[in-house]
Amino acid sequence: MSMSRLGRCVLVVIVLVAATSSAAPTAVQRTPAILQISWSPNGEWLAWSREGDGVHVIRADGSGARQLFVGNGDLSLDWSPRGAQLAVSSDAATRVASPGGRVIELEGHFGDWSPDGSSVLVVRPTGTAPNPWSIWVANAQTGSARYLTDGDLPKWSPTGRQIAFSLILRWNLIFCAETQLFSIAPDGANRRPLAAAPQGYRTQIANNWSPSGARVAFTEEPGINCDDRPARAILAAGDGSLRTHSIGFGWARWLPRGRHLAVQAFSPLGAFRIADPSGRTIARFSPASEYSPSADGRRIVYSEPGRVIRVAGIDGKNRHRLAGGDHPRWSSRNWIAFSAMGSCGGRRVERIFVVRPNGKGRHVLSPCPLPS
Predict the structure, then answer these.
(1) DSSP element (H, E) containing 163
(2) Whole-angstrom distance, CA of residue 277 vs CA of residue 210
(3) Helix residue spans in the chain (DSSP H)
(4) Residue 335 has pLDDT above 70, yes or no
(5) Are the C-beta atoms of residues 131 and 168 closer than 8 Å to each other?
(6) Which residues contact 292 (CB under 8 A, 6 or more apart)?
(7) Whole-prediction pTM value?
(8) I want to staple 165 with a disulfide (CB 3.0 to 4.6 A). Which of 40, 106, 151, 352 is the partner?
(9) Does the pLDDT at position 371 exceed 70?
(10) Least confident of 4-18, 19-33, 135-149, 290-304
(11) Best CA proximity match to 161, nearest among 189, 137, 122, 194
(12) Cβ atoms 152, 107 nearer than 8 A
């Protein structure tokens, strides 16, 4: 998953969920590939994007299938917290749609949802130097938007009281940026740093807040040819005290319930580890590319190179092969969705399947795509 234009400005590409996608067989390469899968938080709807075929949605029971948008499928998919709307975003625009079909057009790429789903953060290329981007708060029902602050990569806290974002402090002559992590209230008040400014031309980017909103996991990393030190996973207090501590190298995200974090490592074949907030490693998973935790944060599903999907406890125990495929996603209703090759009228195409974590109940969910 790449993050934004700020990352491209400093020549950084960050992938938190799919650092290295597994190599697909020749049969997949000849057919339109499924690029993303996303469950609504309530587990009622599943959205997916397909190469050259846009964005589709379907209910978990197989009803209500429809194509939301046409396009190349290279779009971000972000459900509102209650699952009532889906934000589909490119670099320039965000469309907020209900599965039933109502669409709100927003200028700017998607940033984040407010915890109650009433507002959307969007980022526009209208900042003032040294920041090329600005953050806006848009009404998810009407599309009206107001300026919040210059910056990029916003993350709304679960409490709704503050928004973390990245603010560029300076550039050098070879376009390396020094970027600091800040927070701001949704009304524009109380803008303050959450971490001390990085030493040198490095970029601080919020990954996500802890479920309580007390801390934010962020990455401090270099741009290409800007700094030789590796990316660090850091936790910052959300109270503006500038209290931080590193939990190792890589990119960290809080898991549900806030007891553990998944820390993605840089590896040619992909790898991640489960750590507690002190940074102590609980389990390691390698090789592994995409992962998705269960709703209770006790188990995890992940994919390996070669299109193998496995399920394990968060402690690394009870690992077992679940299926062959890619893009595993665990729903709040305890279904795991994934993409795999299937048959459609004699054609071999990539389709969406769902299965229980114990391997039972496997069935195809997505309808056959139209021939290209």
Answers:
(1) strand 163-171
(2) 10
(3) 5-9, 26-29
(4) yes
(5) yes
(6) 300, 301, 302, 328, 329, 330, 336
(7) 0.88
(8) 151
(9) no
(10) 4-18
(11) 189
(12) no
